[in-house]
Amino acid sequence: MAATALPPIGPADPLGREVFSQRDSARAAKGNVPHKAFLEKPGVDVLSLDRLDLAPDIVVAQIADKNAERRHQTFYGWAVVSAEHAATNGRTVRAVPRPDNPYHAEIQLNISQSSERRDVEKQHALELAAAASWRGRPS
Amino acid sequence: MPARGPRPAIWLHAALEELDQVEKEAAEEGYPEPSAAAKGHARRILDSLSLAALPAPSVYPTEDGEVAIMFRKEGRRAAVVVLCDSSGGAICLSSIAGENRRARYDRATAVPDAFLKAELRRMKSA
Lengths: 139, 126
Known about the structure:
The structure holds two protein chains of two kinds. Chain A has one domain. In chain A, strands 4-5-2-1-3-6 form a six-stranded antiparallel sheet. Chain A is globular and about 45 Å long. Chain A is α+β, with helices and mostly antiparallel strands. Chain A contains four helices and six strands, in the order βαβαβαββαβ. Chain B has one domain (12-124). Helix content of chain B is 33%, strand content 25%. Chain B is built from four helices and five strands. In chain B, α1 (12-20) packs antiparallel against α3. Chain A binds chain B through residues 21, 23-24, 27, 30-36, 39, 41-42, 85, 88-89, 118-119, 122-123, 126-127, 129-131, and chain B through 25, 28-29, 56-58, 60, 62-64, 68, 70, 72, 74, 76-79, 81, 83, 91, 93-96, 98, 100, 102, 104.
């Protein structure tokens, strides 16, 4: 894949969380992005996303399709948050291009260790879901 | 004429259908199957909240073995979720315009309580 320098992430930039569940995609399309779209396994402090609008959606969708293939799943679309909303309440956002995905970005949750850590992860997930819109996979 | 009580919301039937699918969805996603207690509490909470004017919730299993009931006000950064866990407890989380609150319950029988009702009101007025 060609290595091109992408601009830094701006506050209004859309960041898409890949959704691999048909049921979750149906919920999101009805305006209810489920919080679990933004919930990782316990203790994982980083959420992977795609920087959208830097390339046609179909290009980024093809990258997501490959992620889905590795998971033996299907890619249905993105739960999309702005970088500004992604980076509130102690979270940080950064571009982390990968050889197989130059549009890759991460939200770092920056949660301190505590007995309530999992609850805090769920709280972040809900906040991100509350701010998210749905963008289906282009056909 | 017989006295009429409050009518359940029109979303209750669809929500209960989603609840009936949580074991199947959990299996599809590789999640632990939610317990009968979690499902039972979710059903009771849905029944109770269906008497209030709320947007239609989503009902789904989580990878922590919970049953989630999530309400969201579309077009606003406002959502409330109740997570009924498989050991009989629950957690209520709200996120409204970036302000987050939560309450944890050893026994889900306490839900819905004043906290959840207040957060749902805040969500509606967001």
